[in-house]
Amino acid sequence: MATSYKDLNPKAAIVAAGTLVAKPGKANELAQWFANLKARADSDIEPGTLRYHIVRNGDLFAVWEEYANAEALELHVEQNELFKEFIALELFELTKSAFYSGNSLPVPTKSF
């Protein structure tokens, strides 16, 4: 685990996880922005974005993002005008974040 993805192996898969709290009166607007960011992340514009999940509970949002490598994460953050506009709006307070790297679990050996 690291506090910055730059501290991890740049060629390995990277997971970014965090929790955010919407500023007062901004939860619905934040939810709409997340819906738009998720649509972009799930599109062909970001082929290195493997998973992008957001869960909402009132004003609290949990985010789980998985990227093929550091280059894919940088594409999502640094070359994404929608993301830059979202950050500039200051709709939330980041309460916790962490970055992880490594490989996925092996293929299951049991069928259900």
Automatic annotation (TrEMBL):
Limits of the ABM domain: 14-87
- Which residues belong to the signal peptide in this entry? none
InterPro entries named among the record's database cross-references: ABM_dom, Dimeric_a/b-barrel
In terms of SUPFAM superfamilies, this protein maps to: Dimeric alpha+beta barrel
Name of the featured protein: ABM domain-containing protein
Source organism (scientific name)? Phellinidium pouzarii
Q: What is the lineage of its organism?
A: Eukaryota, Fungi, Dikarya, Basidiomycota, Agaricomycotina
